[in-house]
Amino acid sequence: MEQRRRRTRTRKRKQWIIYSVISAFMLFLLGIGSVFLFSYLQGPPSLTSQQNTVLYSADEEVIGVKHGNQSRYWVPLEEVSPDLKQAFLTTEDDEFYDHFGFDFTRIFAAIGKNIINMDKVEGASTITQQYARNLFLTHEKSWSRKIKEALYALRLEMFYDKDKILEGYLNTIYFGHGNYGVEAASRFYFDKHANELTVAEAAMLAGIPKGPSYYSPIRHPENARERQETILHLMAKKGDITQNELDKALQEKLAFAEEDEREGKQIAPYFQDAVMNEASQLLSISRKELKTGGYKIYTTLNKDMQKSLKQTSVQEIDEASKIQVGALSLDPKTGGIQALVGGRDFEESQYNRALQAKRMAGSTFKPFLYYGALEKGATPGTPLESEPTKFKLANGKVYAPTNYNNYYANDEITLAQALALSDNIYAVKTHMYYKPETLVENARKFGIQSELPAVPALALGSASVSVLEMARGYGMLANGGKAVHPHTITKITDSSGTVLYKRDKPSAKQVLDPNTSFVLTDLMTGMFDTSLNDYSRVTGAAIKDQLTREYAGKTGSTDKDSWMIGFSPQVVTAVWTGYDNNKDITKVEEYRYARNIWADHMETIHKDLPEREFKPPEGVTAVAMDPHTGKLAHSGCDDRRVTYFLEGTEPKNYCTVHVPNPEETDENKQRKKDGRSIWDWIGF
């Protein structure tokens, strides 16, 4: 009986053990299933992370990289060196393509070694686990972090293929010195792309993440070299490289990037700063988000033009001078800013004098005045007295402008001369005749948005405007009167190439009258034409001999500012120089900086551009004009200039000041009879 009870108890105990084991196993399976179900219901984890934003020039070359405290690039797996991929697989997880996120063999082996050594001497994290940690978690050592890491790793394996996980891992792992990902590390350490690395370089990089500071080849080259050799031998042992490749890699002398290459050469920092501001507005995000969003920003910068503008600014301005410069070049057809200098030293001052500063325009404002005058009936030959004049204003005050150095013709001069000589009296007389409000209205047509007081001095550029505004206005003359919308960006994509913004084709909206625009442009070429000399030389005489193309332009100066703005049919360049603290310019050579920078720069950039002339529209006509009288010139006139007029406004009478040449040849008489003399004057 007792024996039977004993057998019964034994049987029940066995049954309980079996049931317990089965229950535990079922609970384990249920737990595992719950984990899998929970992970599945969570869906695919986001693979987004902070990435560098890259800026490109107009020909799609990198001009700058923006990032926060961390430098990150994202490159597709196929753009990573096969040797670099293999070095990481061999070193970190040689069973990567065979497990489901966890290598239990390594886990148990690591646990055994750690128990034997009573310390954590070996880890067992797979590449998937490391990627999960890099992407979502901190590196704290706690059970909660380990559990989260495992769950994220499981989700990664569920929803992404192995190549996608490996790509993400290689793009997020830390390599020290603020660099994340193999592309950032390749550029920082070797000034190469990740697909250009040799076996030796790949092994060097693969060794760094184990201890980014301890194995940094910059801080601890001996440690880094030892780690590299270990990896190379391991790759050879596992058959990833041949013995010959091993020997070659061990003997290779690595060429690390120089310090300035590691820091990254930034082209056109003032331009880049403007790009970041524009992109931030276009995407409606903060600059911080923009810098770390992995965007690709394609800009309008022409690297050759930028180099020229920067170099000429440096060469022309005395290094000891404290004077500043703001300058830019833009394409008048598209409005794209092709070169920009916002100051002499971006590191010293980030204030952009080409875009942010507003200074008195001086006589560069006069073309806007004369555009309105031409529209209302004035012509290039309209005469006015150039003499000291006092203007009595409606408020009873007297305005008495003066010419430069108090030089006057004390006689009539034509509009063509007035613009070329920059005669102030002629300008104010014209301004007051057509009313100051007319100039304000016309300046708005040219895109000037700054405050413009309708006062007599506005004709002489008393309003404060930016270099960009003035370049925009002159650009409308260069393109025949069409709207100009200055910009620095043509396209923005995300890191995967999806287009987020693309600039539309330039507007063909006609804002200015094309005929009037051309007549004014022709007049503005007169600043380089010595036939317009009178009581003083034309304002461009000092740089005339440097120029090999036809340009239109205008100088301007105040006590504190010096300007030169001019254009060809292809490029507009505006240059301002002056002191930040509004100190007077007292040295003659400092007034010349703007003109010299402009001339050197325009000649340099036009060497590679096709030669183009300003093309007259159908509504204008050319005549040989005596620039002093504004009448038709004959062979006896000492000076004659082929000048364009709006059709029907050209002079009909010949100049009577000069007597025809008595020794005129029969051949020339016959030419006049044939009606061909005007072509002689033009140059045919």
TrEMBL record:
Catalyzed reactions: [GlcNAc-(1->4)-Mur2Ac(oyl-L-Ala-gamma-D-Glu-L-Lys-D-Ala-D-Ala)](n)-di-trans,octa-cis-undecaprenyl diphosphate + beta-D-GlcNAc-(1->4)-Mur2Ac(oyl-L-Ala-gamma-D-Glu-L-Lys-D-Ala-D-Ala)-di-trans,octa-cis-undecaprenyl diphosphate = [GlcNAc-(1->4)-Mur2Ac(oyl-L-Ala-gamma-D-Glu-L-Lys-D-Ala-D-Ala)](n+1)-di-trans,octa-cis-undecaprenyl diphosphate + di-trans,octa-cis-undecaprenyl diphosphate + H(+); Preferential cleavage: (Ac)2-L-Lys-D-Ala-|-D-Ala. Also transpeptidation of peptidyl-alanyl moieties that are N-acyl substituents of D-alanine
Keywords: Carboxypeptidase, Cell membrane, Cell shape, Cell wall biogenesis/degradation, Glycosyltransferase, Hydrolase, Membrane, Multifunctional enzyme, Peptidoglycan synthesis, Protease, Transferase, Transmembrane, Transmembrane helix
Glycosyl transferase family domain mapped to chain residues: 64-235
Protein name in the entry: Transglycosylase domain-containing protein
Provenance organism: Salinibacillus aidingensis
UniProt KW Transmembrane helix keyword: yes
Penicillin-binding protein transpeptidase domain segment(s): 327-600
InterPro entries (UniProt xref): Beta-lactam/transpept-like, Glyco_trans_51, Glycosyltr_51/Transpeptidase, Lysozyme-like_dom_sf, PBP_transglycosylase, PCN-bd_Tpept
Main location: membrane
Transmembrane portions of the chain: 16-41
Subcellular location: Cell membrane
Keyword Transferase set for record: yes
PANTHER family: BINDING PROTEIN TRANSPEPTIDASE, PUTATIVE-RELATED, PENICILLIN-BINDING PROTEIN 1B
